[in-house]
C-alpha cells in the first residue's frame, strides 16, 4: 500500500525528516510513537502534501504510484486520509454540505453515481452512531464551537464516510476521556479491514489497548530508530524513551 | 499557505475575466458633451417634463456649481471632468413604444446576453423587470399584472408624466438635492430610473427588479429610483448592473429614495457588477451612489442587502432614518474587491424615534492590490429612547497586497440606548484551505466554499433568485482560469 524510501523533508529551511523508511501493507495497523519534535506530525503532513513542507529527497509510493509531486486533493482522491491533530473551524460551511461534497468527489473518482442530500442522509446515518456523533452535528458549521472530543469524533466520522484506503490518525486519542476513547476506537476498528491500512500516531499506550497494532515504530530525530510488535509499546511505557535510546546506543 | 505556489494559485483564482464587457452597437440619440443650464433644459424637454421638474433640476444645478467634490473617503482617483461627460444618451426609437414587442431586437438581445429576459412569455420566477439602458428605461415587464393589485411599477420618466402629484410629494424628501455633491449633480441631470408605489394593505405579488446597463463610453449614468410603501404594505426590490469594458472611466451617480409608512416593509437588494477595470487598474466605473430609506411610520422596516463586486471606485452608504417609533433598519453587505479596485462603503443608521432597532452585518473581501473599507455611522438622537443597534464588520484578506479598514462612527445622545459593535480581520485560512483539500476538494471549490461560508449571514438575507446569482457571481470572480 505505502512505501516510503529515504524520505527527507523540511519546513522553513529546517530539516525535520532525515531519511525515513517505512513499508505498510494492506490490512496492517502501524503505530508511530516518539518524543515531541521527533517528526511524527511532520510525517503525516508530508504524506498528505501540506504545502508548508518540502520534500528534499526520497520517494513516497502509494499503490505503486509516486505521489511526491501530487497536490493534497489529488492524494486525498487516491484514498489517503488524515485525521487532524487540531481540526480547524470553518465558519458558515455546514458539516453536511462539506461531507456531501467530499463524498461525491470520492464517488466521482471511483466512477460511481453522485448522491443527492436525501440519499446522502441514508448513507451517513449509520456512520453517525459508529463514531458517536449526534445527528444535529450535520447542521452545524465545520468544527465551529465543538469541544475537543467532538472535533476528534468528527474526524472519525469523516473517515468512516469517505472510506479511504490509508488513514493516518494524528494523535486522535489526545484530549479524549476514557469513554470517548472507547467510542473513537470502536469507530476505528469498524473502519479497518484486510484491504485497508492504518497509521496511528500517538504518545500513549492506552489507544493501543483498543486498536491493536501489528507494528510499533519509534521515531527519533526524523528517523525510525526501532521497530517491533505491540509489545514494544509496553516496553516504552515502562522504560520511557530514555531506556530505548540507551538500548540502541 | 505560506508558500509562493498557493499565493499564485490564489491570484489566478481571483483574476477571472469580466463576462459582461461586451458593447452593443446601436444608433443613439445623444446630446453634446458638457453641462450648463441649456443642457438641463434640453434633458427636461426631451423627457416632456412638467415645469416643477425643470425648476427642481435648475435649482440643483445652481447648488452643485457651488459645491466641492467630497474627499474624505479612503479612495484615490482622478476626478472626472464634468464638462467632458455626455449627460444624455438613448437608443434611437422611431416612435413611441406601445409594448415590449416594439423594442429594438438588438436591445432585447443585449439583455438576453446578460441573462435578463424581457420576454414575458419566458417569465422568470416571479420577477417584474424594468430595464434601463444608458439614460433611459427601455421597457418594464408585467405592468398589467401588477396594476391588478394597484402596484405601480414603471420608469421614473413615465411616473413624472403620469403621476406628477406623487413625484412632487415625495421626490427629494429623503435625499434633498443639496445633500451632497453627487446628489446635486444627479438631481440636475438624472435621466431615468424606476418608480414603485405599493398601495395600503398590499403585499406586492412579484419581486420588482431594475437592471441597469451602461453602454456608451462617454455618457454618465445618473438614474434615480423612488419607492413608496404605504401603510401595511410590503415589497421586495432587486437591482442589478453591468457595463462594457472601456479603458476610460465612466461615471455612475445614482440616487435611491425609499419611504416606508406605518407597518410597511421594504426590502432592497443589489447585486452590483459594474466593470471594475483591468488587472492594472485601467478603466472601470466610478460608482458614487446615495441611497437612503426613511422609516416614516411606526413599526416600519427597511432592509438593505448589497453584494458589491464591481466598479473601479465605490462610494456608497445605503442608510436608514428611523423616525417612526419601533421602526427597524437593516444593512447586510458583501463587498469584494480585486486588482486595483477601491471600495469605501457602509451605512448610516439614524435613530430618531423611540424603541428603534438597527442591525449591520458587513463582510469585506479584499484580493489583489485592492482597498476595501467599511465606514458606518450609528447615531442615537436624544428622543430615540430605548433604541438598539448591533453591528458586525468582518474583513477577509485574500492577498498580501490588499488592504481592509473599518471606520465606525458612533454617537449616542440619550442614556437608555444600546450600541454593540464587533469587528474582525483575518487572512484566508491556510489551514482551513488545507483541511478542505485533504478531503479531496480542489482549490477552486475549497476557496468558494470558504468565501460563501464567510458571506453566509448576508446571502441568507437575499431573495432566493438573487442568492444564487450572488453565489455564482462571487465564484465567477474567484474562479480560476478553467471552466
TrEMBL record, chain A:
PROSITE patterns with a match to the protein in the record: ABC_TRANSPORTER_2 (PS50893)
Start and end residues of each ABC transporter domain: 2-246
Keywords: ATP-binding, Chloroplast, Nucleotide-binding, Plastid
A single MF term (Gene Ontology): ATP hydrolysis activity
CDD domains listed in its UniProt record: ABC_FeS_Assembly
Entry-linked InterPro entries: ABC_transporter-like_ATP-bd, FeS-cluster_ATPase_SufC, P-loop_NTPase
Classification via SUPFAM superfamilies: P-loop containing nucleoside triphosphate hydrolases
Coiled-coil stretches: none
Keyword Cell membrane: no
Protein name: Fe-S cluster assembly ATPase SufC
Encoding gene (name): sufC
TrEMBL record, chain B:
Domain of life: Eukaryota
All copies of domain SUF system FeS cluster assembly SufBD core, residue ranges: 212-454
GO process terms (BP): iron-sulfur cluster assembly
Keyword Chloroplast in annotation: yes
Domain SUF system FeS cluster assembly SufBD N-terminal: 123-204
Alphabetical keyword list: Chloroplast, Plastid
Keyword Amino-acid biosynthesis belongs to the record: no
Family: Belongs to the iron-sulfur cluster assembly SufBD family.
Protein name: Fe-S cluster assembly protein SufB
Organism this protein belongs to: Pseudopedinella elastica
Gene that this sequence comes from: sufB
Amino acid at each position: 500500500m505505502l512505501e516510503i524510501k529515504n524520505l527527507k523533508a523540511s519546513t522553513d529551511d529546517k530539516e525535520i525528516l532525515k531519511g525515513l523508511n517505512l513499508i505498510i501493507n494492506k490490512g496492517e495497523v502501524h503505530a508511530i510513537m516518539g518524543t515531541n519534535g521527533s517528526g511524527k506530525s511532520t510525517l503525516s503532513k508530508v504524506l498528505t502534501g501540506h504545502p508548508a513542507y518540502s520534500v528534499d529527497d526520497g520517494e513516497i509510493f502509494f499503490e505503486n504510484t509516486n505521489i511526491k509531486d501530487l497536490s493534497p486533493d489529488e492524494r486525498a482522491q487516491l484514498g489517503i486520509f488524515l485525521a487532524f491533530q487540531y481540526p480547524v473551524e470553518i465558519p458558515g460551511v455546514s458539516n453536511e454540505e462539506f461531507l456531501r461534497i467530499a463524498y461525491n468527489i470520492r464517488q466521482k473518482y471511483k466512477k460511481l453515481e453522485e448522491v443527492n442530500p436525501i440519499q446522502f442522509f441514508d448513507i451517513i446515518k449509520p456512520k453517525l452512531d459508529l463514531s458517536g456523533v449526534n445527528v444535529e452535528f450535520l447542521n452545524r458549521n465545520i468544527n465551529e464551537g465543538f469541544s475537543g472530543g467532538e472535533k476528534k469524533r468528527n474526524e472519525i466520522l469523516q473517515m468512516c464516510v469517505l472510506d479511504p484506503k490509508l488513514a493516518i490518525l494524528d494523535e486522535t486519542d489526545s484530549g479524549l476521556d476514557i469513554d470517548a476513547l472507547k467510542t473513537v476506537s470502536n469507530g476505528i476498528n469498524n473502519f479497518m479491514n484486510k484491504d485497508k491500512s492504518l497509521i496511528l500516531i500517538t504518545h500513549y499506550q492506552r489507544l493501543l489497548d483498543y486498536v491493536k497494532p501489528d507494528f510499533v515504530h519509534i521515531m527519533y530525530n526524523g528517523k525510525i530508530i526501532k521497530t517491533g510488535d505491540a509489545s514494544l509499546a509496553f516496553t516504552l511505557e515502562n522504560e520511557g524513551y530514555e531506556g530505548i535510546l540507551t538500548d540502541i546506543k | 499557505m505560506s508558500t509562493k505556489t498557493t499565493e499564485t494559485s490564489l491570484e489566478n483564482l481571483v483574476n477571472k475575466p469580466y463576462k459582461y464587457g461586451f458593447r452593443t452597437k446601436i444608433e443613439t440619440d445623444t446630446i453634446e458633451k458638457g453641462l450648463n443650464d441649456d443642457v438641463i433644459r434640453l434633458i427636461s424637454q426631451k423627457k416632456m417634463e412638467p415645469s416643477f421638474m425643470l425648476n427642481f433640476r435648475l435649482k440643483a444645478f445652481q447648488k452643485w456649481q457651488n459645491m466641492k467634490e467630497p474627499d474624505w473617503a479612503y479612495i484615490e482617483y482622478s476626478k472626472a471632468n464634468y464638462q467632458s461627460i455626455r449627460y444624455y444618451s438613448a437608443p434611437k426609437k422611431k416612435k413611441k413604444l406601445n409594448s415590449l414587442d416594439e423594442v429594438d431586437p438588438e436591445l432585447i438581445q443585449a439583455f438576453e446576453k446578460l441573462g435578463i429576459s424581457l420576454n414575458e412569455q419566458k417569465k422568470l420566477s416571479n420577477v417584474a423587470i424594468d430595464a434601463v439602458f444608458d439614460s433611459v428605461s427601455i421597457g418594464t415587464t408585467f405592468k398589467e399584472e401588477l396594476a391588478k393589485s394597484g402596484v405601480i411599477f414603471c420608469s421614473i420618466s413615465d411616473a413624472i408624466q403620469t403621476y406628477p402629484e406623487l413625484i412632487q410629494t415625495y421626490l427629494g424628501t429623503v435625499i434633498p438635492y443639496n445633500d451632497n455633491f453627487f446628489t446635486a449633480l444627479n438631481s440636475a441631470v438624472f435621466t431615468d430610473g424606476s418608480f414603485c408605489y405599493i398601495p395600503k394593505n398590499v403585499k406586492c405579488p412579484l419581486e420588482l427588479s431594475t437592471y441597469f446597463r451602461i453602454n456608451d463610453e462617454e455618457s454618465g449614468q445618473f438614474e434615480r429610483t423612488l419607492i413608496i410603501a404605504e401603510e401595511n404594505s410590503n415589497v421586495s426590490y432587486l437591482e442589478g448592473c453591468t457595463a462594457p469594458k472601456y479603458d476610460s472611466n465612466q461615471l455612475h451617480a445614482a440616487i435611491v429614495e425609499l419611504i416606508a409608512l406605518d407597518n410597511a416593509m421594504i426590502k432592497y437588494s443589489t447585486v452590483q457588477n459594474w466593470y471594475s477595470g483591468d488587472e492594472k487598474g485601467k478603466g472601470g466605473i466610478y460608482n458614487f451612489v446615495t441611497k437612503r430609506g426613511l422609516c416614516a411610520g411606526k413599526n416600519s422596516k427597511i432592509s438593505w442587502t448589497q453584494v458589491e463586486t464591481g466598479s473601479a471606485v465605490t462610494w456608497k452608504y445605503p442608510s436608514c432614518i428611523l423616525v417612526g417609533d419601533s421602526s427597524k433598519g437593516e444593512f447586510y453587505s458583501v463587498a469584494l474587491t480585486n486588482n486595483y479596485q477601491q471600495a469605501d462603503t457602509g451605512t448610516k443608521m439614524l435613530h430618531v424615534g423611540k424603541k428603534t432597532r438597527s442591525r449591520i452585518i458587513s463582510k469585506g473581501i479584499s484580493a489583489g492590490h485592492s482597498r476595501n473599507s467599511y465606514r458606518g455611522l450609528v447615531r442615537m438622537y436624544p428622543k430615540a429612547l430605548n433604541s438598539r443597534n448591533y453591528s458586525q464588520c468582518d474583513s477577509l484578506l485574500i492577498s498580501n497586497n490588499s488592504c481592509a479598514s473599518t471606520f465606525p462612527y458612533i454617537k449616542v445622545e440619550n442614556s437608555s440606548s444600546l450600541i454593540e459593535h464587533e469587528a474582525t480581520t483575518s487572512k484566508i485560512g491556510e489551514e482551513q484551505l488545507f483541511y478542505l483539500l485533504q478531503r479531496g476538494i480542489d482549490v477552486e471549490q475549497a476557496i468558494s466554499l470558504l468565501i460563501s461560508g464567510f458571506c453566509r449571514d448576508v446571502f441568507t438575507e437575499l431573495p432566493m433568485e438573487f442568492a444564487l446569482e450572488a453565489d455564482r457571481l462571487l465564484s465567477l470572480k474567484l474562479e480560476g482560469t478553467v471552466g
